[in-house]
């Protein structure tokens, strides 16, 4: 599926890929500019400062708030929306809300990118079809936050990224016990497990809790998000 978004201060937009090739947008696909709210008096570890808003087709009504987001969607070819931080780290990400899926593939994940090396990563908390975006090679598993997660890696060749068309790796932790509602993602648990498997991250770019859908996706999500 394709994943992606824009950074309001002029950073190039990004896509992650999981859809069938026919569903992939061109690298030049238009991105909706996100709202961007930032107060230098607020800690980035405790305030969300990045709105992710990408779609290719269908009806996707995204409403970001100061502490989360809601989205209703139908007939969606591919979209990714969410709320997070313009700089990722090993924070604990708390989320509370719900997701319903009536059609297509829908997932809720902690999602982000790093550079040097260029990596697109997912910690999938909920997937409507079981595997969600997990593809490529399953390389191990890890227990975090009360569930086993299967760990996958997949190489994207000449695909859109936050650094333009590039070849890069996707790292994916897919939670076996799905939770579309509330919980905490201890990102260090996943990052440490990935590192032990040789899946090294680089310098963090943005990091979000996101809802994603493709394949005529229909449903809704609503979440509040915080970090510690």
From TrEMBL:
All residue ranges annotated as the GH11 domain in the record: 36-225
Keywords annotated in UniProt: Carbohydrate metabolism, Glycosidase, Hydrolase, Polysaccharide degradation, Signal, Xylan degradation
Pathway: Glycan degradation; xylan degradation
Any one Pfam family match given in the protein's UniProt record, by short name: Glyco_hydro_11
Gene3D superfamilies to which the protein is assigned, alphabetical: 2.60.120.180
Signal peptide from the UniProt entry: 1-19
GO molecular function, one term: endo-1,4-beta-xylanase activity
Highest taxon above the source species: Eukaryota
Keyword Hydrolase: yes
InterPro entries documented for this protein: ConA-like_dom_sf (IPR013320), GH11/12 (IPR013319), GH11_dom (IPR033123), Glyco_hydro_11 (IPR001137)
Chemical reaction(s) catalysed: Endohydrolysis of (1->4)-beta-D-xylosidic linkages in xylans
GO BP term, example: xylan catabolic process
Enzyme class: hydrolase
E.C. number(s) listed in UniProt: 3.2.1.8
Active-site residue list: 120, 212
Family, as annotated: Belongs to the glycosyl hydrolase 11 (cellulase G) family.
Stated name of the protein: Endo-1,4-beta-xylanase
UniProt source species: Paraphaeosphaeria sporulosa
